[in-house]
Amino acid sequence: MAAAAPTGAASAELVIGWGIFGLLLLAILAFCWIYVRKYQSQRESEVVSTITAIFSLAIALITSALLPVDIFLVSYMKNQNGTFKDWANANVSRQIEDTVLYGYYTLYSVILFCVFFWIPFVYFYYEEKDDDDTSKCTQIKTAFKYTLGFAVICALLLLVGAFVPLNVPNNKNSTEWEKVKFLFEELGSSHGLAALSFSISSLTLIGMLAAITYTAYGMSALPLNLIKGTRSAAYERLENTEDIEEVEQHIQTIKSKSKDGRPLPARDKRALKQFEERLRTLRKRERHLEFIENSCWTKFCGALRPLKIIWGIFFILVALLFIISLFLSNLDKALHSAGIDSGFIIFGANLSNPLNMLLPVLQTVFPLDYILITIIIMYFIFTSMAGIRNIGIWFFWVRLYKIRRGRTRPQALLFLCMILLLIVLHTSYMIYSLAPQYVMYGSQNYLIESNVTYDDHKNSSAFPVPKRCDADAPEDQCTVTRTYLFLHKFWFFSAAYYFGNWAFLGAFLIGLIVSCCKGKKSVIEGVDEDDSDISDDEPSVYSV
């Protein structure tokens, strides 16, 4: 007999769920377009780099949007009393799971293509374009040559992931050919899940390092910058005028030494050159400060200062909520997990944290829990952006690029989107760390037998009662999200994420201390001697 399709309220709930996902996709595309256009340089904007940045950032956000959809679908198949809905038989459940799995296959494959092919190719193409003597054909050849190196890394990751045995052959006396055959059979049975999972987990590991560097700092820098605000443009302009007068006096003093026709000593020539460069920078600052001081946008931002302070206080409270939840979750794993060999998997929640308690409560009112998950993801995105904007893009101790509103070069924009893409991949595990049971099973319950004794302990009976799904639940009673399968395919990645969470907590505390000790930001922060992205005809407002 065919399974009944969902009807009535259940069908309406499903339509609402997919409708929210559709609106979320439109919002993601609009957000990516606005964000990239906001930061790209107006002088050096390129169509290809702009499309690449928008597309890669959108793919990352759409992938993160699959997490609430995945949780919604596994939760939707069961009633609150622990029984499966009439239409959710084994075939339908498998179809739903496969649909989500294929969605992850597609998006993760596109991410691999962006990280290892498209973004490197476009980046090296524009690096070669800076050389005026290079033809387009040479640019393409050189970019393709460097991109091949990334392609080789991608192929190696896929091969290692495909042939790392998650199980071992039962027969210890098997031949080498039988062992190789076993590996191919295992690869075929997993439909390439292990290979893709290993590659994505490797990128997620890099995203974890980026999150420790940028997101942890951004979680403190963003709210404190909103609370402290920026320095007064009029006061900065007065200080700048005094600096100009002082530098001009030094220049006049040095030039007066050669009035009688005598050549300046080498030491004075070097000093004169430095003062003249300093004077050019100060006059550039003067033009920017004058523009900002008279800008209507500056006056509008000044009127919004009370609102910014409120938002700053809210963001710091949210950051503390996340940090406390992450600490309690990690402490629970340290005390009650199955150990490092299992990737610190935990059976049930022994230490409750605020978010893990809040999400099940919100599940009772659809779709509040999914809205909260989406807000958490966007919060990580905004704090990561704030961290990258404040720190810049570095290669060890060498600063490669600055991220400036309206003045970010195409190469820096590609780097920015690459880092955000990797951080977004890591947010799924961050959310799992904050609410492990919820990410694994959503709001699913399963039935267990409960014995009740009556008539003076002479008689007893057993009847089923619902219990929240956890790691101890039977496999046929609770459906695990596809997100969890991707996150925990390899135990050593899970172990690395666990230690990465402790590093994230430490980085947040360090960033909080640094952000508290730093003074107010300059209203034109970034206009200095080594800022090659600044143009005299491109004044811009930098207030937060």
UniProtKB/TrEMBL annotation:
GO terms for molecular function: AP-2 adaptor complex binding; clathrin heavy chain binding; cobalamin binding; insulin receptor binding; protein transporter activity. It is a multi-pass membrane protein. GO terms for cellular component: clathrin-coated endocytic vesicle; endoplasmic reticulum membrane; lysosomal membrane; plasma membrane. Keywords: Cobalamin, Cobalt, Developmental protein, Gastrulation, Lysosome, Membrane, Transmembrane, Transmembrane helix, Transport. The keyword Transmembrane applies. It is found in: Lysosome membrane. The chain crosses the membrane at residues 15-36, 48-69, 102-126, 146-166, 193-217, 309-328, 370-400, 412-432, 490-514. It comes from the Eukaryota. InterPro entries: LMBD1_LysCbl_Transport, LMBR1-like_membr_prot. It holds the Pfam family LMBR1. The keyword Membrane applies. One of its GO terms (biological process) is gastrulation. Interacts with ABCD4; this interaction induces the translocation of ABCD4 from the endoplasmic reticulum to the lysosome. Interacts with ABCD4 and MMACHC; this interaction ensures the transport of cobalamin from the lysosome to the cytoplasm. Interacts with INSR, adapter protein complex 2 and clathrin heavy chain. Belongs to the LIMR family. LMBRD1 subfamily. This is Lysosomal cobalamin transport escort protein LMBD1. The gene is LMBRD1.
